[in-house]
Amino acid sequence: MDLIPVEIGPLNPQVLDLAVGLVLFAVCYLSMVPLLRRARRILDAREQATDGVAQHAEQVRALAEEKRDEAQTLLAEARHDAARTRQQAEAEGASLIAEARADGIRERDALLARAATRIEADRAAAEAELHTHIPELAAELASRVLGEPVSPGTRTPAADTR
Description:
There is one protein chain. The chain is an all-alpha fold. 84% of the residues lie in helices and 0% in strands. It contains 2 helices and no strands. It has helices at 15-146, 157-160. The radius of gyration is 63 Å and the shape is rod-shaped. The N and C termini lie far apart (182 Å).
């Protein structure tokens, strides 16, 4: 039995063929719907897992960047503190060197003053010692120059003119 009463060739389907096709389509459709639903759930779960991991990775990356920024800030502060400490140490070292140099100069000046005083005292003592021996030394020198002995108490006319 033809679906359309007019003869149009192979395009005219038989009602029995259409009924069998419709029943087979319904069976296939009804058997595939649960499989397709299950496949959709699996795909949704996979996508959610992938997106969840991607979101988690993005959160971890953002946290890592935040921690890196904090660490860089901390390092910058530490470098700044180290530079400040180094500068203070250099200033303290320079002041200690200047202070030590001033102490050394004071000690040198004091030592030179003591040495000059001691030299002056020794010179005065040596001069006083020599003053006691001047007449004897003069007599001995005159004896050498004249070639005859001269006594220390003898006065010469040249000595009187002084």
